[in-house]
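Summary of Year 1 activities. Much of the first year was spent building the evaluation harness for sequence design. The harness presents a backbone, in tokenized form, and records the residue chosen at every position. We chose the following record to illustrate the format because it has been used consistently in internal testing since the harness was completed.
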């Protein structure tokens, strides 16, 4: 069976036997990969620390029947070390990799890989607030999977404008005519924040008041979890801490 190389982000790890681990990886060229890293839990392992969650590595794998086998691993981004020492960064990164792990194979594209790497790098550096990094990641990940929220036109009738409602189940902003009775109104500043998060306009995002950031975060979480069809467990830890 052939060997191959790829760049990967470690999403999850599980113990296997006394010294091995099963890894769930999001790769740049081969989608999601399930692999076994033999002996990585031994203190003598040459690459165990390079295969922890949130780490980015260049790996060589042997193509197996059920699981591929990790043969080599070289670090490309040691983001995990700077993430796990901060609770907000850790829970944010956990929500991001959990979302990436939910991707179907057809959605695990090079663009999803690069988006996740960029988000983890930003978290590790502390470039922006953890929640804004997560919100921007979630919106972009949904868009790459074909679930981009409508933010400039009514998600139901297509009318362009600054509409006063946002409904996850309808796909984004909704005009007054299309909104179901009793729908809560959304401030224009909140929708503008969603647009900035989608576009990565960090000067606007970083300068936004806390109430606008919080309101946008609630809509992003509802939208992502609706389209993923089940809750993102790590989000509950993030909300509880806040």
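For this record, the design step produced the sequence shown next.
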């Amino acid at each position: 069976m052939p060997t191959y190389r790829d760049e990967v982000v470690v999403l999850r790890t599980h113990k296997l036997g006394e010294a091995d681990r099963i890894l769930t990886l999001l790769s740049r060229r081969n989608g999601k990969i399930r692999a076994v890293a033999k002996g990585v839990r031994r203190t003598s392992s040459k690459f165990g620390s390079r295969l922890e969650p949130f780490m980015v590595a260049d790996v060589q794998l042997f193509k197996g029947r059920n699981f591929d086998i990790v043969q080599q691993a070289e670090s490309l981004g040691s983001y995990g070390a700077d993430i796990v020492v901060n609770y907000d960064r850790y829970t944010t990164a956990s929500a991001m990799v959990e979302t990436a792990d939910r991707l179907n194979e057809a959605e695990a594209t090079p663009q999803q890989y690069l988006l996740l790497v960029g988000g983890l790098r930003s978290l590790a550096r502390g470039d922006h607030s953890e929640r804004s990094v997560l919100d921007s990641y979630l919106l972009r990940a949904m868009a790459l999977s074909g679930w981009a929220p409508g933010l400039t036109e009514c998600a139901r009738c297509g009318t362009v404008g600054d509409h006063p409602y946002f409904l996850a189940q309808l796909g984004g902003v909704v005009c007054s005519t299309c909104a179901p009775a009793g729908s809560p109104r959304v401030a224009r500043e909140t929708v503008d924040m969603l647009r900035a998060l989608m576009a990565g306009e960090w000067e606007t995002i970083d300068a936004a008041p806390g109430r606008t950031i919080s309101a946008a975060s609630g809509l992003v979480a509802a939208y992502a979890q609706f389209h993923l069809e089940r809750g993102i467990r790590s989000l509950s830890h993030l909300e509880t801490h806040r």
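The chain has a mean pLDDT of 91. Quantitative recovery figures across the full test set are reported in Table 2.
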